[in-house]
Structure formats: structure tokens, C-alpha cells
Amino acid sequence: xxxPSSHPxxxxxxxxxxxxxxxxxxxxxxxRGLALPGPLGTLWSGGAVPFEGFIEAFLFGAALLDSQQAxxxxxxxxxxRTRQAGGVGFDLWASPHFLVVYRGQITLxxxxxxxxxxxxxALAEGVxxxxxxxxxxxxxxxxxxxxxDLVLPDLPPYVKGFSTGGxxxxxxxxxxxVFERAQAxxxxxxxHAGENGPGSNVREAxxxxxxxxxxxxxxxxxxxxxxxxxxxxxxxxxxxSNAALAVDVVPHPLPRMLxxxxxxxxGTDDPGLIPCDLGTEATAARSMGLDDTTLAVLRQNGAxxxxxxxx
Length: 311
Ligand SMILES: [Zn+2]
Fold this sequence. Notes:
By secondary structure, the protein is an alpha/beta fold.
């Protein structure tokens, strides 16, 4: 039996915009004279809110990322959380187009510098991170191209991937040209799929979008799980986030996914909003009936498929 602690521990999925520590957000809101949105307090105290409430809380945190220092602070929070749970790496989703162009609240240069400084600081403390640029699925493929127009001309070396997130409102087959363009620029491709959209999105993302990694994949049916296993497609699973945002998906499909041979690994998603870390996620996995051997597999997959640990 493999020892769970023998593989490096990696947070396989976490968002910059959902990373800020509650203490920092509270003091920053006070300094700016902003009232905290109600759903944020509910989430911090472990309550569930409707998806719109989550978005309100998410946008409130995202709006604070308007300087290099704030972005760096968010990376610092990710690194600290990872380190405190015994982790050595994280794959960090970040949305430059949303903050720089859509919201117009920070320059691209300040955004990249905040990430670069934060990642360097993390590395100095033994935690290696990389960035996955996130585009908004429901804004459609035209938006996807606009994200690439923004980031590709001067892509920092720590950006390893391109992904879609948000609501799964736009078919993945329509995203295929965007994914192809990102891949041609050397980026790996991931997608949030089968989270707030149907399980068929997972199959479509892989077969028609050419997606190489799935975030969540909660609603995938057995045939799709077989496909994911056969193609060795990594799937990032975030139990605390799922419990708050995909309340109808019960029981959690993680045990079923693992039985099908899918290369699942654990991530924290938005721990600044939905309090959790790699420790709570492992505990959640254990409470689904998974034993030490299976937890070791999760951890091994987490390291082997992590983009932050790859060249
Ligand atoms: Zn996510």
C-alpha cells in the first residue's frame, strides 16, 4: 500500500479571485468604506447561498484586486493556505481579461507583476505555483479570442494553461478554435464542465473541444467516466465548493469516478469565499468512504498531473 504522504501534495484547482483571506477582505472593505455583501458572510460562516449570491461574493473579492499589491496578497493567501496544509504546489486559475478589460480596474502589467512577485515569494518558501488563464464560458468564443489577444503577445513563463469557467452556457464545440489557438501558443487546455451544466458537457469538451483536463466533471455519466479514464484526462475535484454550489449532486460522485479509473485530484476552488484547504478536502473525501489507499491515489494523481510541477 502506498503511503499517502509519499507524494507531493498539490492544490490542483484554486482561483486568484476567490483566494483572499477573510481578514484581509474585512480590513480592506473597512478602509474603502464598503459594506460586505450578505452572501459573503453566509459563505464565511459555512452556509450555502444561491449561485447568484456566490457570484456577488466572488465579484466583491475580485473588485479588490485592483493593484499589484492586492494581486500579490491573493497569491500569498494561496501559498500560505497550501503550505499550512503541507502542500508544495498549486495550479492557480486567474482571469486577466475580466479584471483588466471587462472591469478595467488594473493594468495588465500590474496584474502580471503581482502574480510574478507572489509566485516568487511562494517559491522562496517552498511552494511552486503556476497560472491557468481563465475565460468566461458564457461570454462565448469571441470573448475567448479576446482573452488570448490580451495575454498571448507577452505571455509570462509561469502561465501554463488556458481554461473556461463561469456558467457553461456556450457549447464547447464552438470553443474548439479558441482552444486550438491557445494550444498552438504552448498552453495546456482545461475547462470547468459538468458543474453548473449537464454531464454531456464533459464529453463534448473532450471530444469536440479537445480539452485535456476537466474541472469538476460532477455530472458526467458512466460512459463519460469511462472515456475520461481511457484517455487519462485529469479531473480536479473540489468537495467543499461542490457542497456549496452544486447542492443537487448527491451523493458526491468522487468514489464513483475513482472506481471508474478517472485520474481525480483534490482542489480548493475558492477557499477565500468557501472556507477550506487541502486538509478539509481530504477529510471530505474520507467521509465519502474513501480509504487510505484511495486517498494516496488522489494525492499521487494530484502531483503527477499538476501543471505547476511540470516543466
Ligand atoms: Zn473553479
